[in-house]
User: Which sequence fits this backbone?
């Protein structure tokens, strides 16, 4: 099981390297390759997590298919045989962890939907009884289910932290029509996925969507969708408001890094082999529960 921390494809034009994905410009389309890199506290860790990139790609593909009745998305294919010929020499590395996608102009906001109170939303609530300027009632605790899903956008940061903003600020950044469309699609997508996952024993506490404008001027779903990296997945069987919840995402790694008192500035410490193996196991389990299928490690 060979982990891939970074790709180098001679003859393909590297468009950008994100925290996790290497993106190549193929002319009329983009090739997104999900590596096994893992970032925590906005720092890329030195140790890749085997199978992580494959899980992210395959879960996104699953959700793109399942939600296509709500909104179009940018996925053209995840089958390497459908890719341009100059990708063929790299078929083995691309298989399972790559996606050929339509080019769009990304909206300059992150579209976060919260169904439960935790994370930065909980910190803001404890200060002001509101989240992103949306007032909430008294008595909520870590893990409380919110009365209705909240659209809580944030800025996009290439480096450092995204910042939570209110809806009015989002309209200033992308325009009112685009912000309203992104908000409505985000909430509809979240509710569909929340209900789907609940039947399979998973609580999707919150998630982040990204949208882009295609050549026709339509807003479509891009990037990844409802993965353990862009969402908080909690096992329903262990759900208990008032405490931090066990999860299927990289929270396991965050908890380890907190335990060793890392100051959250680069470089990050190396992960023990057992933490790496357990994290791979959590990603694979999330895929199995969501899709009903298994991926071989």
Assistant:
């Amino acid at each position: 099981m060979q982990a891939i921390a970074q790709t180098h494809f001679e003859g393909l034009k590297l468009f950008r390297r994100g925290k996790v994905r290497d993106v190549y410009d193929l002319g009329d389309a983009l090739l997104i390759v999900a590596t096994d890199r893992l970032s925590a506290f906005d720092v890329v860790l030195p140790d890749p997590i085997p199978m992580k990139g494959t899980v992210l790609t395959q879960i996104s593909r699953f959700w793109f298919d399942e939600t296509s009745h709500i909104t179009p998305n940018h996925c053209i294919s995840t089958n390497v045989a459908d890719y341009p010929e100059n990708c063929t020499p790299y078929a083995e590395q691309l298989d399972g962890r790559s996606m050929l996608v339509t080019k769009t102009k990304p909206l300059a906001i992150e579209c976060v939907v919260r169904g439960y109170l935790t994370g930065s939303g909980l910190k803001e609530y404890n200060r002001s009884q509101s989240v992103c300027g949306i007032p909430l009632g008294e008595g909520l605790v870590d893990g409380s289910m919110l009365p209705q899903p909240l659209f809580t956008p944030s800025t996009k940061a290439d480096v450092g932290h995204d910042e939570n903003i209110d809806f009015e600020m989002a309209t200033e950044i992308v325009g009112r029509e685009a912000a309203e469309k992104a908000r409505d699609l985000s909430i509809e997508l979240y509710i569909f996925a929340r209900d789907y996952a609940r039947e399979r024993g998973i609580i999707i506490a919150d998630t982040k969507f990204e949208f882009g404008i295609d050549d026709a001027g339509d807003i479509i779903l891009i990037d990844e969708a409802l993965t353990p990296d862009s969402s908080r997945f909690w096992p329903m069987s262990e759900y208990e408001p008032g405490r931090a919840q066990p999860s299927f995402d990289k929270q396991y790694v965050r908890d380890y890094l907190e335990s060793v008192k890392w100051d959250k500035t680069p470089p990050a410490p190396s992960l023990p082999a057992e933490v790496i193996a357990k994290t791979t196991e959590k990603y694979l389990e999330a895929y199995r529960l969501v899709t009903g299928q298994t991926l071989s490690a």
Observations:
- The chain has a mean pLDDT of 94.
- Residues 1-103 form a domain with the Phosphorylase Kinase; domain 1 fold (CATH 3.30.200.20).
